[in-house]
Amino acid sequence: MDANREARAIAASLPFDRFSSGLDGSLVTPTDDSYAAARRVWNGMVNEYPAAIAYCESTADVRASVAFAREHDVDLTVRSGGHSVSGASIASGALVVDCSRMEWVRVDPDDRTARVGPGATWGTVDRATQSFGLATPGGVFSDTGVAGLTLGGGTGYLSPKHGFSADNLRSIDVVTGEGERVTAGPDQRTDLFWAARGGGTVGIVTAFEFDLHPLDHDVLYFESWLPVDAAPDALRAYREYQGDAPDESCVSPYFAAVPATAEFPADRHGEFAFVLSGVYAGDPVAGRDECAPFIDRADAFAASTDTMAYTDLQTMMDHDFPDGRHYFWKSVPLPELGDDAIDLLADAATSAPSNLSTVVVWPMHGAVERVSDETSPVVSRDAAVVVNVEAAWDDPMATPENVQWVRETCREFRALDSTPGTLPNFAGGSAPDADDVYATHADRLRRVRERYDPAGVFRYERE
Questions:
Q1: Which stretches of 159-266 are DSSP H helices?
Q2: How many Å apart are CA 11 and CA 54, to the nearest integer?
Q3: CA–CA dist 107, 128 (Å, integer)
Q4: What angle do CA 238, 243, 246 make, to 5 degrees?
Q5: What is the DSSP letter of 436?
Q6: Which helix (H) or strand (E) holds 295?
């Protein structure tokens, strides 16, 4: 039986009418006209057929969904922002608890905190917090869901200054696998709070509370586009810079194809290039001086430097990652950016089967590395950089070669002196791989999940 027919059979065998009548929100099943759109997520590579999607509008709806899944022995997944690069937020034959309608943000400017609903995106959070001159680290795309990013760690432009998104959690409200509503924080249910700070789906979080930080000025963003053959020397200069880079600086070089736009020389369009890119979260004038070695490159064939509002920075790349495109991402943390890794970077980028793909070098200095390894499940904080291998393509028939490119490239980086574990947001795929992702923290994470979900109601992203 194919997945579509199986989903219909499961839905027909369950009392969804009774369940739906008790929801504040609504339920979509395979026989509904809206099902085709409802089962889709941002990543076009994900093509699953759930038995039903419960659009929850309250914590009561979430608890009712968990109770229904427990009673009828149905797999349960959780969807909020709907990016789901890994595909873990939706599964064939499962009940999807969709929290996207629970989108709210309440900022306390005096306490410098924000309470955030599980359906909020970072764009919603950024607009709310910036109205008070405050911010918290939150990825690099405005339509990324707060829940998914935070529960997977969460790296962003403010991470060198303030840590991962998960590092800025003060507390969470959670519906556990047993349907109990609990609050976890540094002083209560500390094991659950630890697991939620990057450990994936440890329950359904119905509210996040974040620390906020002052950011009442524009930030600096720059890009310098260089030929690929200039990358080795530029990366060695970057390596030296990162040795004592200030917390305000988030320089993240990457390889990408040159866009076919007027900002770039026509004879470069479509070829892979090396880009020195970065953000300075402190005073923009000081940032211009700090980042001058990257900005004022004589070998750059295109360059730009801008100061902008943080909300504009957070939306700047949204159009580069459109809804429905196919994505497969994995990452490898490196204890140092050695010459062998530098040589491999250019080879990996130029061998990508799709010119929509990128290879990014993400910095791990500052607040990220100062957080104790015991405060969250996320490992590899002592890495110098993380190499993110990001395949993107439009033709479904090209899926095997793009996935293979990502996996093979990561295997080559792993063969170097890599750091155990990886960033959960960039783990790639939804297969059980907790040992690979969380390394020495994997067993501890499993114990927490077993305590709060002994029946295994949730289908976990990392098992």
A1: 159-162, 190-196, 231-242
A2: 12
A3: 7
A4: 90
A5: H
A6: helix 292-295
| Cα-to-chain-centroid distance, residue 221 | 21
Residue 197 neighbours by CB under 8 Å, 6+ apart: 153, 164, 166, 167, 169, 375, 376, 377, 378
DSSP conformational letter for 457:
-
Residue with tokens 């809804």: 323
Q: How far apart are CA 403 and CA 429, in angstroms?
A: 10
**218 has a pLDDT exceeding 60:** yes
pTM check: above 0.70: yes
Per-residue CA distances from 103 to 97, 112, 118, 179, 281 (Å)? 14, 20, 6, 21, 27
Q: How does pLDDT run across 407-439, given as a tens digit for each residue?
A: 999 999 999 988 898 988 888 766 667 889 999
What burial class does residue 57 get, using C-beta atoms within 10 Å of its C-beta: 0-12 exposed, 13-18 middle, 19+ buried? Answer: middle
Can you tell me which residue has the tokens 């929850």?
A: 56
Q: Is 392 exposed, middle or buried (0-12, 13-18, 19+ CB in 10 A)?
A: buried
Nearest 10 degrees: Cα torsion 368, 373, 378, 380: 70
Helix (H) or strand (E) holding 42: none
CA distance 196 to 193: 5
Q: Helix, strand or coil for residue 284?
A: helix
Cβ atoms of 62 and 177 within 8 Å: the answer is no
| Phi/psi of residue 53, nearest 5 degrees | -120, 120
**Tens digit of each residue's pLDDT (9 = 90 or more) over 162-199:** 999 999 999 999 999 999 999 999 999 999 999 999 99
Here the tokens at position 289 are 């001086």
CA distance 363 to 276: 13
- In the chain, DSSP finds a helix count (H) and a strand count (E) of 17, 19
